[in-house]
Amino acid sequence: MQRLDKFLSQAGVASRRELGAMIRAGRVSVNGEVMRKPETKVDEKTAQISVDGVLVGAARPRYILMYKPLGYVCSTDDPRDPVVLDLLGEEGRGLFPVGRLDKMTEGALLLTDDGQLAHNLTSPKKGVEKVYIAVCDGTPADMAIEQFKTGLTLRDGTLCRPAKLEILEPGKVRVTVHEGKYHQVRRMLAAVGAPVVTLLRERFGPLTLKGMEPGQFRNLTNEELANLWDIF
Ligand code: URA
Question: Is 130-204 in CATH node 3.20.20.70?
Fold first, then answer.
C-alpha cells in the first residue's frame, strides 16, 4: 500500500505539491471513485488510478508512437526481417502495432496493448484519417484528384472510398485515406499512372511525427490519448 500522492508523483504525473491540489480538486479517481485526500492509501498493484479520466500506473494500457523506419515489418514476429517491436526492446513486451505499414514505408505507427482502441482505430466503419506523402515516378493528372474524391477503382477492380489527392510538386503528392486496404496508397497511385517511389505516413488520426526522427518512439501524451478517444 502506498499514499496516493506519492504513487502519482513516482509515476511522473506531477510534483507532490501539485498533486495535492489536483487530488483535492477531484481530478483523481481510484477504482472509479473520486478521491480527494492525498494521503489515501492505495494498493498500487491492483488499483485502477486515473487522472482526468486517464489511467496511470501498472493497470494502464500503454500507447507508443513510433516513427517507423524503412526496412522493418509491422508484425510481432517475422522469420526474415526485423520487426518494429525489435526497436522497443523490453518496452515492447505485450504491445502490437495498430494497423500496418509496409516494410518499405516509414512514418507514424501506434503500438499499444489496448485491444479496444486498436479495434476502433482500424475499423473501416470508424474511417480514421491517415495521411501519406509519396514521391512518385511521374505526376498524377489533374483528373486523378476527382477520381480520388469520388472513389477510385484500382487495377484489380477494387473500389476505394473517397480519398483526397493533393499534388504538392511534380512527382510529389499527399494522399489522405480513411481505410487501410493492402498496399492501398501504392495501388491507388499506380492506378493513376504515378507509381510510388517512397512513401511516408505523416499522420495517423491526430498523431503526427513532429520533432521525431526515424526509429524514435515515445509514449503518447494524455492530450494525444484524449484526442484519439475523441474520434469515436
Ligand atoms: N498504403 C501503402 O501502400 N502502404 C503502406 O504502408 C500504407 C498505406
Answer: no
